[in-house]
Amino acid sequence: MLLAGSVSRDVVTVVCVLLAVSVFATTATECTQETVNECLEPFKTETGNATGSPIVPTRTEEEMQKVCNDYDNFAECLKPIKPNCVEIDRLVFEGIDNYYDYFCDQKFDEYLKYRDCFKQGKLHEEGKYCNLTFTSRLSDLRDQGYSSSYLRDRICQYVEDYLDCVENVVSSFCGKEAAQWQRGLDVTSLEPLLNRISCPGWQQSTPSNAVIILIAVFFLLLLLAVGALLAMKLCQMNSRSRRQTGPDENAVPPYASYDGNGVYMYAAGMPPVEYTQGGAAAGPLPTKAPPYPESLPPEYESPTPYSGPGYDNPVYGINPGGPPTGPITVAAAPSEVAPVDSASVHAGSTK
């Protein structure tokens, strides 16, 4: 499987750390990243302009019409490929098709009515938090061992909350009709996936593996953050790994604590850092420690702390205090490591 995971330049780093999203399966003969990228070529000039907002982007009528025309070419190119893709990939493609059919054909004239209101920067800033909340909640579901039925219920609820969030934001800036237009766009895009997992209120069908659907819903919801700029989502697959197991085992997120005010303290006494999104805290970094092995090699078992006069109760962490008054010995150290004289420590050198 090919992996991807980002919303836009604004949040690409955080999202890539949190999730690796499965999009295409290379097991199918023709449904590969290479073949899809060939179809995506017309979109590559459109990358780099995403806002990270779920609200549809605003451009001139001519520019948006060009995007729609480019998508028609992409869809035509993709026709012979889609039958060879696995089901989850076909569902994602169907959602993308629905998005462009709604935006470019069914409701384009209505979009033009609301376009001026959709230009407001504050509207998009507010909309970003719908995405950030949604992606944070989804990330909490991963690798927790939840049952398929529990995952389905959580996904369905989170999607409804997301739709309500975006609708309320648009309504507060542009009115009820514009909000209904935006919700219609989001709903029609998500419909194939939510039908598949039988979300309440959606068309019922045979339940599926909710873990897989979780990945696909995450991908498609983030696609909505790009709006009509399809390439921002799909072209970013080029920089992701093809492995099925997720991110590199060494690419673990930092272990951090959060003070609630946008300030994060890394473990092991690293200095505090601020991560902001639009001038405000974007959400805490992961607070779960990396997956350390359950047991250490024998040579690392039961490490003995420093001992010595005046240092019977050492304090670990930031600024543990001044050096001890007597010689320091490390009980578990190899014999070739000589004790360190505290006077040398004070002088800034060792013997």
Fold and architecture overview:
α2 packs antiparallel against α3 (61-78), α6 runs antiparallel to α7 (148-174) and α8 (176-196) packs antiparallel against α9. Helix content is 46%, strand content 5%. It starts with a strand and ends with a helix. It has eleven helices and seven strands. With 351 residues, the chain is mostly helical. The protein folds into three domains: 3-239, no CATH class; 252-291, no CATH class; 298-351, no CATH class. β4 (263-266) and β5 (272-274) form a beta hairpin.
The H/E string reads EHEHHHHHHHHHEEEEEH
State the helicity in percent bands.
Answer: 40-55%
Structural category is mainly alpha
> What's the gyration radius in Å?
26 Å
Instruction: Return the average pLDDT rounded to an integer.
Output: 60
The profile of the biggest β sheet is: 3 strands, antiparallel
**Beta-strand fraction estimate:** 5-15%
Number of distinct helices: 11
- Oligomeric state of the chains present here: single chain
Show unreliable segments: 1-29, 222-351
Tell me, what's the shape?
A: globular
Structure summary, number of beta strands? 7
Q: Distance N terminus to C terminus?
A: 56 Å
Strand order of the largest sheet: 3-4-5
Tell me the number of structural domains: 3
Biased composition (Low complexity): 297-309
Signal peptide: 1-28
Region (Disordered): 281-331
Biased composition (Pro residues): 287-296
